[in-house]
Amino acid sequence: MNWLDICALDEINVLGARIVAGPRGDIAIFRTARDEVFALDDRCPHKGGPLSQGLIYGKRVACPLHNWQIDLESGEALEPDVGCSHKYPVKIEGGRVLLALKSLKDCA
Amino acid sequence: MEKLKLVMIGNGMAGVRTLEELLKLAPDLYEIAVFGAEPHPNYNRILLSPVLAGEQTFEEIVLNDLDWYRDNGIDLRLGCKVVDIDRENRRVTASDGSQAEYDRLLVATGSSPFILPIPGKDLQGVIGYRDIADTRAMMETARSHRHALVIGGGLLGLEAANGLRLRGMEVTVVHLGDWLLDRQLDRTAGKLLQNALEARGIKFRLNTNTAALLDDGQGRVASAHFSDGEECPADLVVMAAGIRPNVELAERAGLACDRGIRVDDYLRTADPAIYAVGECANHRGIAYGLVAPLFEQARVCADHLARLGNARYEGSVTSTKLKVTGIDLFSAGDFMGGEGTETITFSDPIGGVYKKLVVKDDVLVGACLYGDTADGGWYFRQIREQHNVAEIRDLLMFGENAIGDAGHQGQDKAMAMSDEMEVCGCNGVCKGTIVKAIRENGLLSVDEVKKHTKAASSCGSCARLVEQILINTVGGAADVKPKSEKPVCGCTDLNHGQVRQAIREQRLTGMGEAMKAMEWRSPDGCATCRPALNYYLISTWPGEAKDDPQSRLINERAHANIQKDGTYSVVPRMWGGVTSPAELRRIADVAEKYKVPMVKVTGGQRIDLLGVKKEDLPNVWRELGMPSGHAYGKSIRTVKTCVGSEFCRFGTQNSTQMGIDLEHALFGMWSPHKVKLAVSGCPRNCAESGIKDVGVIGVDSGWEIYIGGNGGIKTEAGEFFVKVGSAGEVMEYSLAFLQLYREEAFYLERTVHYLHRVGLEHIRQAVLEDGERRKALHQRLLFALSFEQDPWQQQIGNPALKKEFERIPVRETETA
C-alpha cells in the first residue's frame, strides 16, 4: 500500500467531507459522527453528482443532485437504486488521515 | 441476548402484514412461529373474486411464498389449527398435538362466513365464500351443475354471483334488503347496479328470506324455498350473508370478546401479552372487514410489538370498491347522509352515472359514486383530511379536474390514461411502469412508488396522479395519509406537528439533544429529517438554538445553488430589483475574471452568474461586494416590484420603495420553504402579486395584501387577505403572517399548502382579528431576524469556514 498523508482529521468537519485531487479525478473523504473516515470517487453512480457535497448520516451520504443514498463503506447505492462509486482504503493514524492509492490500478 | 418468542395464530393478510412491519422495525427481537389452518402460505384474499371470474390464477395471488417465511427465519406450521391457548403457562396447542410457547401472542384468526341457521344448511353443495377451498368448490361445481343461488347481495355475494355467471351458471341472488349493497350504496346507486347485473343475466329476489334448502334425495342441495312461498332450483348455494369474527379460541381462553376480540388503541387484548389484529378484532365496537383498516392496525400493532410504543390506532374511514370488471362503483364515509348533512347529487340514468356527495359543516363526509369513479380517490382524501370545501363547493361534483391543476395537459384522470402515457415528466416514467412496480413489489404508498420508479421524486407535481394510480391499482389498501399524520421519516414515528411540539415544550435547542429526547432510531438521522429538525430548532429558539450547517443541504451550506455539473450559481441581492451602474460594472468584471459561462436575468428581477467553481465562491462574493440573494435557501428569496408612482403614469403607490423596505426587513429569514413577495403599484399588477407567497397591490386608497399564491409547479392565485391604509401596516401584517407560517407550517410546506391545511379563517383570526397577537407575531419575527447576518460576508470573514470551499492541496499524488 502506498499511504499518502492527506490532512489532520480536524480539518474535516464532523459529518462533513473534503475533496482531494486524485489521478483519476476528485476523491471525496468523508468523516462520520463516530470519527470514521471513508473515501470514494467524488462522483455519484447516477449522474456524476459530487458526493462530497451531500448530507452525511450514519455511514451513508445522500447525493446533492438527486438524493441517491450511497453506502460509504462499500460505495454501493442503496436499494432500489443500483450503482457503485469506487472506494479507496483510508485510515486514521495519530490524528492524520491517510489515503491509499495503490488499488487504483486494479479497478480500471 | 436471547430472543423473545412471538407466536401468531392465523396466517392471513392482517397477521402477516403485522410481521412484515415488525421485521422492518425490529428484525432480531423475536423468534417467530406461525400457525395456519389453511395449507397455503399467505395469499391475497381480496383477489379471490378475480380468480373465480377467471381473471387471475391462484399462483398470482400469493403474497408471501414459502421462501419468504424461510428467509425471515419464521417457523411456519401449515394445516395446523390452534385449539388451545394456555395463558398461565403462555403456551398454545394445535390440533396435531404440537405446542409452542410465547412471550407475545398475536391472534389473527380472521372471520368465517355466517351460515344461516335454516333447514338444509349442512347439505352437500352449500358453502360459504371465504378461502381458496371455497373458490375451488365453486369453480368445480360450475363445471358440472347448472343452478346457483347466492344468499346475500353484499360485496362478496355479488362478486361470487358475477364469477359463477361468467363460468356459465344460472345465478339467482336473494337479498334481505331493499336494494343491493345496502351498506355501501344508497338506493339509487343500488338500483343502477342491479340493472347492470341483470343485463349480465343475473336474477335478483330482493326483500326475500331463504326459508329452507331441500335435498335431491342423495344428500345434495337441489332447491330453495323462500319466505314468500316461492321456490327455485339450486345445485350450489353460496352463503354470503355476512361474516362472523373467529373468537371461539380467544373466548375459551377467557379473553373479553363481543363480536370480536376486544382490543384497545394499541391492538392489545385484555391480556397484555396477547394482541389481536384483523377481522377477528373488535376496536371501539367495530370489527373491520376491509383490508385498509387491517393494514393500519398491522402498523400500530407492529410498533408496539417492536417495543416502540408510539403509534395509536384510532379507527378508520373506509372506502369500498366492487371487484366486478366493467362495473365502477365507489363509496366512502357517511354516504347516506342524515340530520345536519346536505347532499349534492348528479344523476344521469341513461348514461348510467350517479354521484352523491354528503357535506356536513362545510366538510365532505361521504361519497357514493356509480358509473364514473375516477374521482373516488380524490373524494376519499377530502373526507379523510377533512378539508373545508365551502369555497369549491360549486365545483366539487365535477372532481379534481374542475378545481384546476396545470402541468399535465389535463390528464389528471389516472383511469383514462393508457400505459404508455407519461406520468412523471421529470424522470420520464410512464403509467405502465408505475402499475407494474406497484403490482410486482406490493407497493402501498406514494413514497414506495417514488423509491422504486422515481416517479414524483423530483418536482413532485405528479404526486397526486401517482396517488390516483396507486388507489386504482390497490384500492383501499393504499396508504394515502396526509403529511400531517405521517412520520417525518423512517427515523421516527413522530409527525411534523409532534416534533415541533416536543421542541417547543421540552425546550430542545440542539440537534443531538432533540434526537435523543424524541428517541430517534438512528444516531444522526437522515437527509430527510435533519434539515427539518434544524429548521424547527432555529425557528423555535432563535438566538438559542445553534444552526447546524452539516444538517443543511448543500445549497444552504455553500450559500449558492449547485448545478448539474457540480458548479454553482451566484445570485447577488438587488433590493426590490433595483440596481446601479456601479453594481452592474462589478458584476461584469467578476463574470469576466472568473470566466462565468452564463450571465442570466432571473424571474426575481436580479442577475444570476451560472457555472462558478466552488473554490471561487468566496472570492466572487468579495469582489461583487453585494449581499447574498438567498436564491438557494428555504428562506426569503426576492421581493419583485414594478416602478410604481415614482415613474409610472398609472402608479398609485410607491411600490418600488415598499418592496425595497420589505426585502430589507425580511433579509435573512429562514422559512419552511422558499418565500417570494411582490409589490405592484396599481391593479394592473405588473409585479405579478397574485402568485406570490405574499403579494401586495397598491390602490388609490391604500394597499391590498394577498397570501398563499404560487407560480410554480401548480399555479395558485393568492387569497385576498386584507386591505390596509399605510406602508407601516403592510409591513406589520405581512411580517405577522410570515411569522405565523414560520411557526406553524411543516418543513417543505409552501404557504399555499399551509393555507389549505389550516384554512384562511385560522390565519385571519390570528393576524387580523387579534391585534395583540399580530403585534406579538411581528415582534417575534423581528427578534429572530436580529440574529441574522449576510452569510457571504460571514464566510469571507471567517477563515475557519473557508475550508468548506477549499480542495485539500495534495502534493503530486503518485499513480503508484
Q: Return the structural class of chain B.
A: alpha/beta
Determine the fraction of residues in helical runs of chain A and give it as a percent range: under 10%
- CA radius of gyration of chain B is 32 Å
Morphology of chain A: globular
User: How far apart are the first and last residues' alpha carbons of chain B, in Å?
Assistant: 47 Å
Quaternary status = heterodimer
Distance between the termini of chain A: 17 Å
Q: How many DSSP helices of chain B?
A: 27
Keywords (chain B): 2Fe-2S, 4Fe-4S, FAD, Flavoprotein, Heme, Iron, Iron-sulfur, Metal-binding, Nitrate assimilation, Oxidoreductase
Domain Nitrite/sulphite reductase 4Fe-4S (chain B): 633-770
Cofactor (chain B): [2Fe-2S] cluster; FAD; [4Fe-4S] cluster; siroheme
Organism (chain B): Azotobacter vinelandii (strain DJ / ATCC BAA-1303)
Account of the protein in words:
Chain B: Residues 633-770 form the Nitrite/sulphite reductase 4Fe-4S domain. Chain B: Residues 423-471, 488-538 form the BFD-like [2Fe-2S]-binding domain. Chain B: Siroheme binds at residue 686. The complex is a heterodimer of chains A (108) and B (816). Helices cover 4% and strands 42% of the residues of chain A. Chain A is mostly beta strands and 108 residues long. Chain A has a single domain, classed as Rieske Iron-sulfur Protein, CATH 2.102.10.10. In chain A, the strands form three sheets. Chain A has a four-stranded antiparallel beta sheet, with no helix packed on it. Chain A has a three-stranded antiparallel beta sheet with strand order 1-10-9, with no helix packed on it. A three-stranded antiparallel beta sheet of chain A has the order 5-6-7, with no helix packed on it. The model of chain A is unreliable at 103-108 (pLDDT under 50). By secondary structure, chain B is of the alpha/beta class. Chain B has five domains: 4-111 and 245-305, FAD/NAD(P)-binding domain (3-Layer(bba) Sandwich); 126-241, FAD/NAD(P)-binding domain (3-Layer(bba) Sandwich); 496-552, no CATH class; 553-628, Sulfite Reductase Hemoprotein, domain 2 (Alpha-Beta Complex), CATH 3.90.480; 634-789, Sulfite Reductase Hemoprotein, domain 1. Helix content of chain B is 32%, strand content 20%. Chain B has 27 helices and 36 strands. Chain B is elongated and about 105 Å long. The relative contact order of chain B is 0.05. Mean pLDDT of chain B is 90; it is low at 405-412 and 812-816. The A-B interface holds A 2, 4, 6-7, 11, 13-16, 18-23, 26, 29, 32-33, 47-50, 53-58, 60, 62, 64-67, 69, 80, 101-102, 104 and B 451-452, 457-458, 522-527, 530-531, 549-554, 557-558, 562, 564-566, 614, 803-804, 807-808, 810, 813-816.
